[in-house]
Amino acid sequence: MKILLGGGSGFIGTALRESLKKNGHLVTNISRRAGPDTLTWDNLKTDGLPSEVDAVVNLAGENVFKPFSMWNDAFKKSLSSSRVDTTKLLADAITKAANPPKVFVSSSAVGFYKPDLTAIYTEESPGGDFDFMSKLCSDWEAASTITEEKNVRNIIIRIGDND
After folding, report:
1. Exposed, middle or buried: residue 24 (CB in 10 Å: 0-12, 13-18, 19+)?
2. Contact of 6 with 90, CB cutoff 8 Å
3. Whole-model pTM above 0.90?
4. What is the C-alpha to C-alpha distance for residues 143 and 89, in angstroms, rounded to an integer?
5. Which is nearest to 49 in space by CA: 161, 134, 146?
6. For the segment 106-158, what is each residue's pLDDT rounded down to a tens digit?
7. Which of these, 9, 62, 73, 141, has the minimum number of CB atoms within 10 Å of its CB?
8. CA-CA distance, 149 to 163, in Å (whole number)?
């Protein structure tokens, strides 16, 4: 399979990229910087989705756990932009593609749900409206929307620790 991977240089993305390559898949990373087997976000915005892509996976996002970052408005904007804007860019590119991929996998986070020591959550559980992170997750997931007529399977994975 030919896979386009946003966030392929991050913590999860690096492991996923290497695993996919090891299993014989052709992986093109999307990054801010050009390089081997890499497409820049600017190129994606200008040129659209490369032809003959079977799957698009987006794990892009500023690290929430930057130890020396203050949770000020600028950092929150960076967290939002790095997730919502990149996801929307990919969803738009898929929508405009003459030959769209079969699947679009987008990440989100368990921060969608309100913390609760006894609750057991499913994807039908309410959330996404109680604090900055939950609203960010809602916006992030909404950005992955692709029109149904494109016939692209849209998967959202809420990543995180439930403990």
Report:
1. exposed
2. yes
3. yes
4. 8
5. 146
6. 999 999 999 988 999 998 999 989 999 999 999 999 999 998 889 999 999 99
7. 73
8. 39
